[in-house]
Design brief:
alpha/beta; Nucleotidyltransferase, domain 5; 5-stranded mixed beta sheet; 4 helices
């Protein structure tokens, strides 16, 4: 089994909704890649949490074994438990309502289909080094999107 690409992601807004940012730390052996971005216009925490793993996986140039660590139960539960049903139901929830953030769920689902992905939930702000770094990158992404200097 090949070594996995280990990815930690985070996203958020200040306030929610409001300007937002996302960050991702990708590790493969001795290689580390830090990614971040954001939106100066109004977005939501959930959109930024979804954007981080999408952008991380879309940077991978070939199919990989991927371990994604997120502090978002929304993202982890959505991709591991809910998305298959949403797809079957024409991107409608069990209550027959349109799925929120459908554009991002579709991109995340497509990105996952390219790789062998395992999802892990990690408690946010609990001292996990790469989760803390992903949080810092998300803040930097938001600040840069707003034209502010990094914190």
């Amino acid at each position: 089994m090949p070594s996995p690409v280990v990815i930690h992601t985070d996203g958020g807004c200040t306030p929610n909704p409001g300007p937002g940012g996302w960050g991702a730390v990708l590790r493969y052996g001795d290689h580390v890649l830090e990614l971040c971005g954001g939106e100066a216009e109004s977005t939501t925490n959930n959109r930024m949490e979804l954007t981080a793993p999408i952008m991380a996986m879309e940077t991978l140039t070939r199919p990989c074994v991927v371990q994604i660590h997120t502090d978002s139960t929304y993202v982890r539960n959505g991709i591991t438990k809910w998305v298959a049903g949403w797809q079957r139901n024409g991107w409608r929830t069990a209550a027959k309502q349109p799925v929120k953030n459908v554009d991002l769920w579709q991109r995340l689902s497509a990105a996952c289909a390219q790789h062998q992905v395992e999802w892990f939930w990690v408690k946010g702000h609990a001292g996990v080094a790469d989760n803390e770094l992903a949080d810092q990158l998300a803040t930097r992404g938001m600040r840069e999107a707003m034209g502010l200097t990094p914190a």
